[in-house]
Design a protein that fits this description.
Structural class: mainly alpha
Number of strands: 4
Strand order of the largest sheet: 1-4
Shape: globular
Helix content: over 70%
Number of domains: 1
Oligomer: single chain
Distance between the termini: 53 Å
Order of helices and strands: HHHEHHHHHHHEEHHHHHHHHHE
Length: 432
């Protein structure tokens, strides 16, 4: 009997291993590697790859995605198709703006990158969203990938340098800026925090909370002041929207959505206090102090200058913009990459009010598919997708954001088609 129990316990491990194997060799893993190829493709140990890694993974993810859809009998679903159709309309108009743009080299490069952005939404909406299991796997794979980026970066800096935290060492590890690594820490922190809100088992909740504070500590020492601010605002402010829970006509206030954000912020303040008292170097805190200066620091001043310039450029052609990739040329910097560090201004300058309206239609329809905010109070998938989208969108409106680099934003928009309400409609109106 004892050996039989041991045998049964041994069998119970196999589903975990099988699930891990499926996740490792899944479309979601290839898709994540494609979405965030910019985070690692510049690493020195990948210099031997003869072609662009983003393009390679893009082609590979398309092939795997077609295979997944083929296994479903090419059954496509109306809400996902509508969402993709709106995104295609936006991209087609961007391509059409090549007719009047003054740019040549960067304009075509930007159009190619925007095509990759379009595939980000198509892959998420058509391949992942119709299967809730794939949505869950996507979130888990993103969490694991982000943790790997953070841990490898942090460990390399710790073992190779005792003082240079800000930027240089991170770039040597991944070939990416400290902001890129900080973005991955932000995603992992939001996922850990959101899942801890819905987790009922104390041990899992404790582990997620520890991981969350570890990621905040990483953001404190890596110099990402904007990313840290967005993470704290997202985890402290947005969950207040999730406090109201509806069951029939009754309304309940979910206390944990009110109490835990406060605890998280208090814990962050306490952690900063303890680290400073221990003599730890916190470049992020030092950069936050710069914001107290009236100018806000050199980087903030440059962003404000670029945004004012982009707004004035848009006024010259408000309806259809100045054409894709025109910002640097009109600014006098030549036919090179560049943008106003603001997604809305980037759209207005390139494709005017028409392009901005098309983007708003894409985002509005995706949010409609996701359902009302009150749905997020009872579903951690709703909540985590909503919070990830909000964190990226706020970043795009403040200190970063260019349509050609919005693969993550459009992937989160595509995932919103997973809503059970939308899937119920899909199942009734499937297309062969």
């Amino acid at each position: 009997m004892k050996s039989e129990r041991v045998y049964k316990k041994g069998l119970s491990v196999s589903p975990v291993l099988r699930g891990s194997f499926r996740a490792l060799f899944s479309f979601e893993t290839v898709f994540i590697l494609f979405l965030f190829a910019g985070r690692y493709k510049g690493a020195p140990y990948l210099a031997w790859v003869p072609i662009d890694i983003t393009a390679l993974l893009g082609v590979l993810s398309v092939l795997v995605g077609v295979w997944v859809v083929a296994r479903r009998g090419f059954a496509l679903y109306r809400p996902s198709i509508r969402l993709v159709g709106l995104a295609i309309a936006l991209v087609v108009f961007v391509i059409f703006s090549l007719v009047w743009t003054p740019g040549h080299v960067y304009a075509r490069e930007k159009v190619f990158n925007i095509a990759l952005v379009l595939w980000s939404l198509i892959g998420a909406a058509i391949v992942i969203a119709p299967d809730v299991r794939r949505v869950k796997r996507f979130i888990v794979v993103l969490f694991v990938f982000a943790l790997c980026v953070v841990m490898l970066s942090g460990c390399t800096v710790l073992f190779n340098s005792s003082s240079a935290w800000f930027g240089v060492d991170i770039e040597n590890v991944w070939g990416d800026s400290y902001q890129g690594v900080g973005l991955m820490a932000q995603f992992a922190a939001i996922i850990a925090y959101t899942y801890s809100l819905f987790e009922r088992k104390e041990l899992q909740r404790l582990v997620l909370t520890i991981v969350f504070f570890g990621l905040l500590a990483f953001l404190l020492v890596v110099g990402c002041r904007g990313t840290l601010i967005l993470t704290v605002v997202t985890i402290a402010g947005v969950p207040l929207l999730l406090t109201t829970h509806f069951i029939g006509r009754k309304v309940f206030i979910r206390k944990r959505f009110l109490v835990r954000p406060v605890c998280m912020v208090v814990g962050l303040m306490l952690m900063i206090f303890l680290l400073i008292n221990a003599g730890a170097q916190l470049p992020t805190v030092d950069r936050l102090r710069v914001l107290l200066d009236p100018s806000g620091g050199s980087s903030v001043a440059v962003r404000i200058q670029y945004q004012k310039a982009a707004f004035n450029m848009w006024l010259g052609s408000p309806l259809w913009g100045n054409g894709v990739g025109s910002f640097s040329l009109l600014l006098g910097h030549g036919d090179t990459a560049g943008g106003p560090h603001n997604l809305i201004l980037d759209l207005l300058n390139d494709v005017g009010l028409i392009g901005l309206l098309l983007f708003v239609m894409v985002a509005a329809y995706a949010l409609r598919l996701l359902g009302p905010i009150r749905s997020a109070s009872s579903s951690r998938l709703h909540a985590v997708i909503l919070l990830l989208f909000i964190s990226v969108m706020v970043a795009d409106l403040t200190f970063m954001g260019e349509l050609s680099g919005e693969r993550d934003l459009f992937a989160f928009l595509g995932l919103m088609a997973f809503s059970p309400i939308a899937l119920a409609e899909n199942s009734r109106r499937s297309l062969a």
